[in-house]
Amino acid sequence: MKSSLTVLGSNSALPTSERFSSAHVFQMHGRFFLIDCAEGTQILLRKNKISFSAIDHIFITHLHGDHYLGLFGLLSSFNLLGRKKDLHIYGPEKLQDIITFHTEYIENEMSFSIVFHGINKNTTVIFEDKMLTVSAFSMKHRIPTFGFLFKEKLKLRNLKKETIKQYHIPIKEIKRIKEGADFITNDGSVIPNDILTIAPPEPISFAFCSDTMYNENIIPIIEGVDLLYHEATFSEEFSQRAKETFHSTACQAATLALKAHVRTLAIGHFSARFKDVSILENEAKTVFENVIAVRDGMKIKIS
Ligand SMILES: [Zn+2]
Ligand SMILES: [Zn+2]
């Protein structure tokens, strides 16, 4: 499996006996990215059999307690386990002060370094390696809040092996051809690239949007993603409450999914008042067919 989203906690502000608050693991090509780290996250990592040592990058959307208060327990456990690898934390700039305050009071010196990457409204790409990029973008919430876009990089084209012999392609030309160039033979004939290569699979993309009120400004950013996770704290009955608290209804999340032509919509960050979240899923489905109302422990595959 190339990519997946594991939902550790799907509730908003208050954890319930059934649902923890915001925490998710996005996995791509063997990399594990923790998105939000509410209270209980380390227990949920254990329950979902995700190794602590696999987590090298943590993305915090904003500084409401239901999104980051589990961070300090996790940092403490990393320290007790003698972690050596650097830990990269990405979040609103003020988070740095909070982390510094907590780590100062840890009894022994930290066994690992925290590399903090502050995000502000002008920040764009916050992580990049040879497989993917992660970008941050602003949400519309009561305090500075960021969404994250994970984008797999387009791979090189696959060269059809038999064409090497057929057209006497020298090794030094292979890289250029894989990048899309045509091949010119010794007698000057042009062999078009699509005869020599097969297009690579479409790159995968995933957008995480929570917490936020309905905001069409993000449509160009999330346009066409394979999976959109969007908060749906309330049902339509509570649309006024959603507006007042800078949250979204399930129908609003679905409207964005529809307008941004995403493939699949996952809704979460549910208000604790909904014991059964099928009401939210059904409301969203009246607008956009391909909706999943997430639950804790759910793993959504992206292929
Ligand atoms: Zn929240
Ligand atoms: Zn919030």
Spans of 5+ residues with little confidence (pLDDT < 50)? none
State the strand order across the main sheet: 6-5-4-3-2-1-18
Ligands in the model, by name, code or SMILES, are: zinc ion
Report how far apart the termini are: 7 Å
Biggest sheet details: 7 strands, mixed
For the residues shown, what is the average pLDDT? 94
Number of strands: 18
Question: What class would the helix/strand composition place it in?
Answer: alpha/beta
Order of helices and strands: EEEHEHHEHEEEEEHHEEHEEHEHHEHEE
Number of helices: 11
Give the DSSP E fraction (strand runs of 2 or more residues). Answer: 25-35%
> What gross morphology would you assign?
globular
Describe the structure.
- This protein is of the alpha/beta class.
- The strands form four sheets. It has a seven-stranded mixed beta sheet with strand order 6-5-4-3-2-1-18.
- Helix 10 packs parallel to helix 11.
- The structure holds zinc ion (2 copies).
- One zinc ion binds next to loops.
